[in-house]
Write a structure and sequence with these properties.
- Helix content is 72%, strand content 0%.
- The chain is mostly helical.
- The chain has one domain (2-335).
- Helix 1 packs parallel to helix 12 and helix 8 packs antiparallel against helix 9 (217-233).
- 34% of the residues are buried.
């Protein structure tokens, strides 16, 4: 299993690098209206996000299967997501403040920053709140998944995950049919909260986990339904997302052990920091170099890639890892103390 988790780290690294290349080689040119192009355009790399969602479904279900009580999961997610996110959001805001962005971007205010620090900016967008970095949109999707699967966990329904997944997928189909038939549009906030656009990918990740441990026909059927929904919801991008299912199936069968190499595993480890900081800060860095005489597309691309990976590495080792360890150790030590000093842990809010 440890070897396969290394492969999962590699897949996470590949997903992150796909998104980074997409933004640097394609999206940046469009946003800054420059008169040159990079050696290639990796625009389809944006579908690395869908690979992230598959991985999240797999990893979070694995995590919950090892979780002893709800607070352990909450502490795990908070320590994983928030400290380095706060550092990244503040750093990005400061970079925008000092270096600015072109008119194609909305400039965030201090109020935007405060709301962004909660990671709930997507739900406040109707009030004019904007994301510090556009890539943050996926964090709202991830948070919605955490809340939904957490509710399944605390109600003791993980053992019925196949049935719940099937019903939920039918719900996604029903909502989409209602939208199309009645020409009715569900509010984006509701879509995000209920995962109506990407829920099938998280479910597929869960089913791949189940497939790895107890291969049953029901798991194949649900994965097939998830794939069919992907075709129904996002037909234009299915040609890119469909193969990701095949890659993930190959992972569960142990067929892609060759990707567990150090460079990809390393990218996987810093992938969250890399994802959070590469876009806006990367754009500002490229634009700074370009306006100061570095006009070679090849040099710009290589330089910004090294810069993005270097910055992500610093955040990973000096913010992400230490803060995660400190929060989890503090909670475990506190929990251990409470168990020793109180024979009724429920008094302290712990559920066993």
């Amino acid at each position: 299993m440890k070897k396969r988790l290394s492969e999962l780290d590699s897949l996470r690294g590949i997903a992150a690098f796909m998104v980074v290349l997409c933004h640097f080689t394609g999206d940046y040119i469009n946003k800054f209206n420059l008169d040159f192009t990079f050696p290639f355009s990796f625009y389809f790399g944006k579908h690395g996000v869908q690979l992230f969602f598959l991985i999240s479904g797999f990893v979070i279900f694995l995590t919950l299967n090892k979780t002893r009580h709800p607070l352990e999961f909450v502490v795990s997610r908070v320590s994983r997501l928030y400290p380095v996110y706060w550092a990244s959001a503040i750093l990005t805001f400061l970079m925008i403040y000092f270096f600015g962005l072109p008119d194609t971007f909305s400039t965030p205010t201090a109020t935007d920053l405060v709301v962004n620090l909660t990671m709930l900016q997507r739900w406040f967008s109707m009030f004019g709140i904007i994301a510090i970095d556009p890539v943050y949109w996926t964090l709202a999707v991830e948070l919605s998944f955490y809340v939904i699967i957490f509710m399944v966990y605390i109600t003791g329904q993980l053992k019925r995950i196949e049935l719940l997944s099937f019903v939920y997928l039918l719900f996604i189909i029903a909502v989409e049919c209602i939208e199309n038939y009645f020409n009715f549009t569900v509010l984006n906030v509701i879509k995000v909260s209920l995962l109506l656009d990407f829920g099938n990918l998280f479910i597929a990740g869960i089913m791949f986990y189940k497939l790895m441990h107890e291969s049953k026909i029901i798991h194949y059927l649900i994965i097939a339904l998830c794939l069919s929904i992907e075709l129904y919801l996002h037909e234009a991008s299915f040609i890119y997302v469909g193969p990701l299912f095949l890659v993930f199936y190959a992972f569960t069968q142990g067929w892609i052990k060759f990707i567990a190499i150090k460079p990809l595993i390393y990218l996987g480890k810093i992938s969250y920091s890399l994802y959070l900081t590469h876009q806006i800060i990367g754009y500002i860095f490229i634009n700074y170099l370009y306006t100061h005489g570095v006009s070679s597309p090849e040099i710009l691309l290589v330089t910004v890639l090294f810069f993005a990976i270097g910055l992500a590495s610093l955040l990973h080792y000096f913010v992400e890892k230490p803060s995660q360890s400190w929060i989890r150790n503090y909670w475990h030590n506190s929990h251990k103390f409470n168990k020793i000093n109180d024979s009724n842990p429920a008094k302290h809010g712990f559920i066993h």
